[in-house]
Amino acid sequence: MSVTIMPNWQGYLNDVPQMDHSLHQARLFLEKKQAVHFVVRDYLPKLRHILASKQVEAATYWSSFDELQQVDWQDEQPLSLDDFTWPAGVEFVYMYDRVVVMLKQHHYATVWPNYPASDHYDRIDLLEKGQLKQQLTLDDRGFVSRVLTFEGAAVTSVDYLNPSGAVVVHENYADGVVTTRRLSWTDQTKFSNLAVLVDEVVQRYFSQHLELGPVVVDQSLANVQTLMTGAISQPVITSYDSNQSSSTTTVPNQAQVVVTGTGAAYDALNAQAQVPVELVPPFAARVKLGQSNASSALPIYWFIDQVDMAMHGPVMEQLLMLARYTPDLVIICEAKQAPAELQAMVTKAQAEQGDDDLNLTEQFQFLGPQSEEQRQDYFQTVRVLIDLSQNPDQYLQTLALSKGVPQVDAVASPYVQAGQNGQIVKDSAQLVLALNDYLDNINKWAQAQNAAVQLANQFDSDVIWERWQQIFQTLKQSSGDHNE
After folding, report:
1. Which residues contact 461 (CB under 8 A, 6 or more apart)?
2. Residue 67 contacts residue 201 (beta carbons within 8 Å)
3. What is the DSSP string of 46-92?
4. Count of H-run helices and E-run strands, the chain
5. What percent of the chain has pLDDT over 70?
6. What does the alpha-carbon distance between residue 284 and residue 338 come to, in Å, rounded to a whole number?
7. Has this prediction a pTM greater than 0.85?
8. Which of 46, 299, 331, 484 is the most exposed place for a label (fewest CB within 10 A)?
C-alpha cells in the first residue's frame, strides 16, 4: 500500500511552509518504510530541489502543472547562463546575490539565484528603459516554465510554457480568465480562473488512478474546494493544520476521517464533523539533548506570537528586571513582527540604567519567523522556553521535549506536565518566579530536563506511527483496500 499526500503548498515557488504537517507526515511514513506519493496541485518549478532538501526525495509525486505543461521527466537539470541566447555585446556583472546583465551600458536584465542556497538560477528579470517588463521563471529541470508580463509595477498576464517554449496556459490578470491549448481530455479551452482548471486536472488524475491508497489531504481552502467539486473514490483523510492561515475547519463530504494535532482544533472540528476526528501529534520528538548546561550564557526563548497584547508590557518589565540582575541572561524573542513597544522598552531601560557594563540591548534579541533549522540551532543552548499564547506552538513544544528544555506556558497542554517538565503561569509575576527556579537552581532544571525526556516518549515516532496505522486499518475495514 502507498499513502498519497495532497499538501497545501500554494503560493510557494522555491520552498514549502515551515513546520508543514504534510512534510512531517511524509518523513514519518518514509522512515517507517511506508511508500509515499504526493499529489501536488500547486505550481512549484523547484519541486525536485525542495523534496531533496526536505529529506523526502524517496517519495514519488504527480504534479497538475506537469500535466498541463506536458513535462514527463523528473531529473534536475539546472540552467546556466550559457544555455540562453543573449544579444551580442552583453556583459555579465557578477554580484554576491545576483548577476546584472548590461547591454550598451544599459541595464538589460537581472539573473537571480535561488535563495539562500544560490546553487542554481531561479528567475530572470528583463528590463526595458529601466522598467521590469517580463520575468522568466526557471524550472529546475532545465527550461523556462513561466513568463510574467508587467505594465508598470503590475502583472498583466502569466504564461505557462512547455519545455519547447510554447504557451500552454495563458492567465489574464485583469479578469482571471485562463485560456489553454487544446487539452487531450476536453474541447474546453477557456476557464473562469486558474483554480477551476487545476481542480479539473486533479480530479481527472484521481479518477484515472483508482489504485491509489488512502489520500491524506491538507485541509486548506483550495484542497477542500477540489474535493467538494469532484468525486474522489479513494479513501480520504483530511489533515487540519491550525498554524496555516489557509486552513479551514470546513470538512468536505468526501472525508472519512479528520486528523488534527491540537486539542482546541479537535473540539472545534468534532463539534461539526460527521466523521471521526482523531488527535495525532504532527511532529515526532527525537531526543537529543542540547548543551545549555555547558554554556555560561543563559538563553531564554520567548515565542511572542498570539500572546495577548495586554501581557506584552508586564512580561517585558519582568524580563528586564531579571536581565538587570543576570548579566548572562539572553532573551531571544521570536515574532512575525517584532512589537515596536517591546523594543522601545529595552532601549529606554538601557538609557535609564546608566551601567556601561550592562548592555540590555544585546541581552534582548528580536527575531522574525524562524525556520525549523534555525529553531533547532537556537535550541542547542536554550535554557527555558516561554510561550504564553492560548495555543502554544507545537513545533517549539516538541523541540523543547527533544532537547530537554523546560517550558513555561499560560495554558495546559499534553506537552507540559506542570511541576515536572515545566510550569503553567497565570501572570507575569508567576512567570519570573518560574524562570528563577530554572535559572538559579540547576538541580530543579535538571529534574525538569529528565521529565521532558520521559514525556518525549509519548511523542516518539513509533507512537505516532502506530496512531496512523490504526487510522489506515479503520479505513481499510470501512471502505476496502484500494490497492488490492
Report:
1. 28, 31, 32, 284, 286
2. yes
3. THHHHHHHTT-TTSEEEEHHHHHHT----------GGGS---TT-EE
4. 14, 23
5. 97
6. 29
7. yes
8. 484
